[in-house]
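Repro:
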Amino acid sequence: MEFVEEYFTLDTKLLRSLIPLLFRPGYLTKAYNQGQRVRYISPLRTYLVVSVIYFFILAWSTSNLLDIDLKQMDQQAQPGAGQVKAKPAAVQSEQGNKININVIFDKFTIDVFKLPSSLEVYENQQRNAKIKDKDGPTKNFIVKKIILIKQMGFEGFLKKLASDFTGNLPQAMFLLLPLFALLLKLLYRRAKHLYVEHLTFSLHFHSFVFILLSLSTLINNQMVSLLVTVAIGFYLLFALKTVYEESFLKTSIKLFVISIGYLMILSFALITSLFATVALTVYTL
C-alpha cells in the first residue's frame, strides 16, 4: 500500500510540475521560491530526469546520423563513373601527408603512410634500431597513437570521438547551471533574491530547454529546430518577467545581455569539452 501511495503521489507531482513548467513560464520557479514545495517535484530531480532522457536521445541520434554520413562518404569515395581514382599512397605522402610537430624540446616529422602496420612491428623496429635512430619519448608516444588510430580506421575513431563527446556533455551542462544562476544574480543584484533562487530558475529553465531539444532531436527537421529556438527565447523572456517582476523593457534588455553572456559561456564550455574529449580519447587509446 505504501508503494502504491508513493507511486501515485509521485505521478501527481510529476503532472503538477510538468504542466506549469511547459506552459506557464516562471510560474513553477516562483511558486517553489515562495515555499510551495510539497506539491511539486524538486527542481534538481526534474532537471536530472529530463537531462538523462535528452542526452540518451542525443547519443542515439548522433550515432545514427554518423552512420549515415560515413556510409555516404564511403560511397562517394568509391571510384565509379565520372570519378577520379584515389592516388597511390606514395604520391599522397609526397603531397602533404607528413606531420610536422614542434614541441618545446623536440622537433620531428612523421610520415603517416610510412608508419608500421602495428604496434608490435614498431616496437620491434625501435628495439633493433641504433640509439641515434630511436625515436624520442614524445615522438614514440605520438607514433603509437597514430598507429592505433589507423588500425581503428577513420570511421571507428570518429564514432568513438562522437560517443565520448556526447558522454561528456551532461557534466559540462551541469557545470553551466550555477554559472547561469550567477549571471542572473549579477543582473538582478538589486532584487532581494538569494542565489539558490536563481539556481532554481536555472534548473527549471534548462529542464524546459532539454524537453524541447529532445523533441527537436527526434523530429530532426530544420523548421522545427527554428521554432524550438524561438520558443526558448520567448519562454525565457516571460519566465524572467514572471519571476523578477520587472517591466517588459527592462526584461527584454536583460534577456539580450543574458543571451549574449550565456552563448559566450556555452561556446567556451563546448569548445573546451571538445578539445578535452579529443585529448582524452587519443590518450586513452
